[in-house]
C-alpha cells in the first residue's frame, strides 16, 4: 500500500526538522529522500499547486543562473519556490517543494543536475527549460559527455509543444536541440573582443552532432563555446535571440554588459566577474524574455544580485578579503583563472582538491586545467585537500617550482599558512572542489566570519 | 643532451583522462636531466614515420574512439608494429590499450579493428569498471606498486604474445575477474591506469624513457630525481583504496 500523501509529507518534514536541529549538515535533502522513498511521484504531486516551473541545467552556471532568474521574478513580486540551498537532484527539488510556505500559484525555479533532468522534467512539466552548456565534468559519475547529450535529446523529444526551450547557441551540442523543438529562445555571446585565440586544450563537443564532421570555429569564448559551423552540413551557430553584445570586464570586481534582446538592448552592471558569468546573465535575460517580463526591470535585478555560495563569493577574514571560486571542472577553473589574471597584484592562492563522491572520485581533470596561465602571477600558493599532493604534482610538472608551494592536510592549517605568507590587506583567492568548499565554509563559520550555508538560502 | 622523439597519436580526439599529464611527465623528467622531448602529433589522415622512439595513445569517448579506429588500423598500424618490433617504447592508456589490440567489440556487436601491436582483444561489457586501481607491476625485472584510476566498459583478454603488466591489488583491472591488469611485450605497455598514470608513478615513466633513449641510440643512466611529491601522492592514492567510501 502506498503511504498516504499527507502522512508521507508530515513524516518527511519532521525528519528534516530533526536533522537540522541535530546539526547534521543543514538537512537540505533528507526530507526529500524520505518523501521519495514513500511516494516516488511526490514531486509531481507537490508541484501541482505551482503556477509554473522553470528548470535550469548545465555543467557550469546553473546555480548562479537560477539565482539570477529568481531575482528577475522577485523584482516583479512573483512568489517563488526554489532549491537555492544547492541540492539539485530530484530529492532536492522535493525538499524545496516540501518546505514551500505558500506554493499555490508560485513560480518554481529549480537548478537541476545534468543527469537528473529526465526525472525532474517528467514530474514537474515545466513551462521553461533552460539548457546552458555541457562540459567535461566528473567522468566517474556521469560517464561520457556524449551520453549526457543523448539523454538531453530524449528529454527534448518528450517535451510538450507548449514548453519553451532556452538554449545556448554557442554550445554546438545544445544548439542542435533547437532542431528538435519549435518553441525556442537562444542566447549567446556576440562581442568578438571576448574571444580566445584558439580552442582550448580540453575542448569537448568539437564535432558536428548531426554529421560528425569536425566543426570550424570563427571565435572561441569558453572551451567549445563560440561561433561555430559545420563545414559539411547545414549546421551552424544560430544567431541568438538574446546576446551579450558588449562585455567590459572590470577585473575581479565584475563587468558591464550590453545585452541585445528582441525588444532592444539592456544594460547589466554585475558584480559577478568573468565571461562565464556573462553567459549566466544572458541565460537569465533570455529566460526573463521567454516569460514576458519587462527586461529593463529584470536587468536591474539581475545586475544587483550577488554571488551564490562559493561562486566568486567574498568573505572578510583577518584583514583580508577571501574570495571563494568553486573549482570543479576544467572549463570552470579555466574561466576562474582567466578572471584572476585581471587582478593587478600578485595572486595569493589557496587551492583545495578533494576526491569525494560530490567532487568526482577521479582527479585526472586537474591536468586539463591551464594553471600555467597564472604561474608568473603567483605570489603564494597553499595547497590542501585529500589529494593535495596530486595538485602539487600538477603544478610541478607544469614547471612551477615545488619549493614555492606548501601542502597541508587540514583546511585550518592551510588557511593559517596562506594568511601568514600574505602582505596586509591582500586578497586571498580560494579554489576549492565542492566538498572542500563545504570544509572551508565550516572553518570560516568556526572562525565566526561566515554563516552556515543553508541559512544563505 | 639526448633527444627522444615522441609520436602522440590523436591528441585532439583521445585525451579524455588528462593524457597531457603523461606527456608533461615525459617532457619534464627528460628536461630535468638535460635531455629533450620532441613531440610529433599524428591525428587523423597522418601516416607516422616508424622511427619514433616513444609512442603514446590515450583514451577517448566512445564516439571519438570509433571515429579514429579505422584511421589507426589503416594508416598507422603498420608503422606502429614495425616500431614495436624495432624496440621503440610505447604507452597505451585506457582506450589506447583497447585500440592497440586486435579488435574492440562494442555493445551492439560492432567490431573495430585495432593497431594489432598488442596481442589482446576487448569486448564491451554491460557495466563500467570504475574506481581507484592499485596493481603490483613488473618492469625490467623489478616489481612495484603502481596506482591510478580506471573507468572502462571494455573487458580485455590477453593472448600468448603478451604478459600482464601486473596483478590487481585493489580495483578491477583488465576484465574485473582475472586479477590481471594491462599488457606488456618488448618495450610496449598497455594499461587501464589513468589519473594520469605517470605523475604518481615516476618509476613507470623512467622505465619508458630509458627504453626510448636506448631506442634513440643514446642509452644513458637516468639519474634519480627528487620525487618526494610523487611519493606523497602515490601514498595518498594507496591510502585512498583503504577508505574507499568516504
Describe this structure in words.
The complex is a heterodimer of chains A (457) and B (246). In chain A, 34% of the residues lie in helices and 21% in strands. Chain A is built from 15 helices and 17 strands. In chain A, the strands form three sheets. A nine-stranded mixed sheet of chain A has the order 2-3-1-4-5-6-9-10-11, with helices on both faces. In chain A, strands 12-13-17-14-15-16 form a six-stranded mixed sheet, sandwiched between helices. Chain A has a two-stranded antiparallel sheet with strand order 7-8. In chain A, helix 13 links the parallel strand 15 and strand 16. Chain A is globular, with a radius of gyration of 22 Å. The mean pLDDT of chain A is 90. Chain B contains six helices and twelve strands. At the A-B interface, helix 13 of A face helix 1, helix 2, strand 7 and helix 6 of B.
Question: Mind telling me the CATH superfamily name of the largest domain in chain A?
Answer: Mur-like, catalytic domain
Class based on secondary structure composition and strand pairing of chain B: alpha/beta
Roughly what fraction of the amino acids of chain A lie in strands?
Answer: 15-25%
What do the pLDDT scores of chain A average to?
Answer: 90
Largest sheet of chain B: 6 strands, mixed
The 3D shape of chain A can be described as: globular
Report the radius of gyration of chain A as a whole number of Å: 22 Å
Q: Write the element-wise H/E pattern of chain B from the N-terminal end onward.
A: EHEEHEHEEEEEEEEHHH
In CATH, the architecture of the largest domain in chain A is 3-Layer(aba) Sandwich
For the record, give the distance between the C-alpha atoms at the N and C termini of chain B, rounded to a whole number. 47 Å
Give me the number of helical elements of chain B: 6
- Kindly report the name of the CATH homologous superfamily of chain B: Class I glutamine amidotransferase (GATase) domain
- State the separation between the terminal residues of chain A, measured CA to CA: 36 Å
Binned, the helix content of chain B reads 25-40%
Shape of chain B: globular
Which ranges of chain B are low-confidence, i.e. pLDDT below 50, for 5 or more consecutive residues? none
Low-confidence stretches of chain A: none
Number of strands of chain B: 12
> How many distinct folded domains of chain B?
1
Amino acid at each position: 500500500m502506498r503511504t498516504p500523501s499527507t502522512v508521507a509529507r508530515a513524516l518527511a518534514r519532521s525528519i528534516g526538522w530533526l536533522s537540522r536541529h541535530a546539526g547534521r549538515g543543514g538537512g537540505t535533502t533528507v526530507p526529500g529522500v524520505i518523501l521519495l522513498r514513500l511516494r516516488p511521484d511526490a514531486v509531481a504531486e507537490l508541484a501541482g499547486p505551482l503556477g509554473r516551473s522553470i528548470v535550469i541545467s548545465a555543467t557550469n552556471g546553473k546555480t548562479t543562473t537560477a539565482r539570477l532568474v529568481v531575482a528577475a521574478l522577485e523584482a516583479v513580486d512573483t512568489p517563488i519556490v526554489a532549491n537555492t540551498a544547492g541540492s539539485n537532484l530530484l530529492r532536492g527539488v522535493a525538499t524545496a517543494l516540501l518546505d514551500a510556505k505558500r506554493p499555490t500559484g508560485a513560480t518554481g525555479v529549480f537548478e537541476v543536475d545534468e543527469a537528473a533532468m529526465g526525472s525532474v522534467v517528467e514530474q514537474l512539466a515545466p513551462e521553461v527549460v533552460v539548457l546552458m552548456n555541457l562540459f567535461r565534468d566528473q567522468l566517474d559519475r556521469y560517464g561520457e559527455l556524449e551520453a549526457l547529450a543523448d539523454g538531453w535529446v530524449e528529454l527534448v523529444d518528450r517535451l510538450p509543444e507548449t514548453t519553451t526551450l532556452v538554449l545556448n547557441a554557442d554550445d554546438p551540442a545544445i544548439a542542435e536541440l533547437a532542431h528538435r523543438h519549435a518553441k525556442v529562445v537562444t542566447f549567446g555571446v556576440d562581442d568578438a573582443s571576448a574571444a580566445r585565440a584558439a580552442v582550448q586544450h580540453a575542448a569537448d563537443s568539437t564535432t558536428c552532432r548531426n554529421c560528425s564532421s569536425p566543426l570550424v570555429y570563427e571565435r572561441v569564448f569558453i572551451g567549445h563555446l563560440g561561433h561555430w559551423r559545420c563545414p559539411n552540413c547545414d549546421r551552424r551557430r544560430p544567431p541568438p535571440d538574446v546576446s551579450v553584445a558588449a562585455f567590459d570586464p572590470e577585473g575581479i570586481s565584475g563587468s558591464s554588459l550590453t545585452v541585445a534582446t528582441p525588444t532592444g538592448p539592456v544594460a547589466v552592471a554585475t558584480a559577478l566577474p568573468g565571461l562565464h558569468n556573462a553567459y549566466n546573465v544572458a541565460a537569465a535575460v533570455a529566460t526573463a524574455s521567454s516569460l514576458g517580463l519587462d527586461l529593463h526591470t529584470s536587468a536591474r535585478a539581475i545586475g544587483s544580485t550577488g554571488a551564490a555560495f562559493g561562486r566568486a563569493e567574498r568573505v572578510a577574514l583577518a584583514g583580508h578579503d577571501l574570495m571563494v571560486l568553486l573549482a570543479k571542472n576544467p572549463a570552470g577553473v579555466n574561466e576562474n583563472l582567466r578572471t584572476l589574471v585581471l587582478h593587478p597584484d600578485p595572486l595569493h592562492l589557496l587551492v583545495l582538491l578533494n576526491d569525494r563522491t560530490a567532487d568526482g572520485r577521479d582527479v585526472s581533470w586537474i591536468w586539463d586545467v591551464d594553471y600555467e596561465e597564472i604561474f608568473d602571477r603567483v605570489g603564494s600558493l597553499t595547497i590542501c585537500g585529500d589529494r593535495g599532493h596530486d595538485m602539487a604534482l600538477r603544478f610541478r610538472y607544469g614547471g612551477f617550482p615545488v619549493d614555492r608551494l606548501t601542502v597541508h592536510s587540514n583546511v585550518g592549517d592551510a588557511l593559517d599558512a596562506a594568511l601568514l605568507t600574505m602582505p596586509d590587506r591582500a586578497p586571498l583567492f580560494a579554489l576549492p572542489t565542492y566538498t572542500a568548499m563545504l570544509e572551508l565554509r565550516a572553518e570560516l563559520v568556526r572562525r565566526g566570519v561566515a554563516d552556515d550555508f543553508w541559512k544563505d538560502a | 643532451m639526448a633527444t627522444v622523439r615522441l609520436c602522440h597519436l590523436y591528441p585532439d580526439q583521445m585525451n579524455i583522462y588528462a593524457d597531457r599529464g603523461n606527456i608533461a611527465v615525459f617532457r619534464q623528467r627528460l628536461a630535468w636531466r638535460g635531455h629533450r622531448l620532441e613531440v610529433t602529433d599524428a591525428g587523423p589522415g597522418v601516416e607516422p614515420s616508424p622511427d619514433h622512439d616513444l609512442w603514446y595513445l590515450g583514451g577517448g569517448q566512445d564516439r571519438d574512439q570509433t571515429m579514429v579506429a579505422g584511421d589507426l588500423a589503416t594508416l598507422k598500424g603498420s608503422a606502429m608494429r614495425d616500431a614495436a618490433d624495432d624496440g621503440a617504447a610505447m604507452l597505451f592508456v585506457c582506450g589506447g590499450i583497447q585500440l592497440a589490440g586486435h579488435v574492440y567489440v562494442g555493445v551492439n556487436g560492432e567490431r573495430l579493428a585495432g593497431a594489432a601491436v598488442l596481442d589482446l582483444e576487448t569486448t564491451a561489457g554491460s557495466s563500467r569498471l570504475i574506481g581507484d586501481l592499485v596493481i603490483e607491476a613488473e618492469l625490467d625485472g623489478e616489481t612495484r606498486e603502481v596506482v591510478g584510476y580506471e573507468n572502462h566498459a571494455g573487458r580485455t583478454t590477453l593472448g600468448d604474445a603478451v604478459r600482464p603488466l601486473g596483478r590487481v591489488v585493489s580495483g578491477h583491472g583488465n576484465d574485473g575477474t582475472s586479477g590481471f591488469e594491462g599488457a606488456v611485450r618488448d618495450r610496449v605497455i598497455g594499461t587501464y591506469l589513468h589519473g594520469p598514470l605517470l605523475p604518481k608513478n615516476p618509476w613507470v615513466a623512467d622505465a619508458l624513457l630509458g627504453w626510448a633513449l636506448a631506442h634513440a641510440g643514446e642509452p644513458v643512466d637516468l639519474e634519480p630525481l627528487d620525487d618526494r611529491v610523487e611519493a606523497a601522492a602515490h601514498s595518498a592514492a594507496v591510502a585512498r583504496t583503504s577508505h574507499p567510501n568516504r
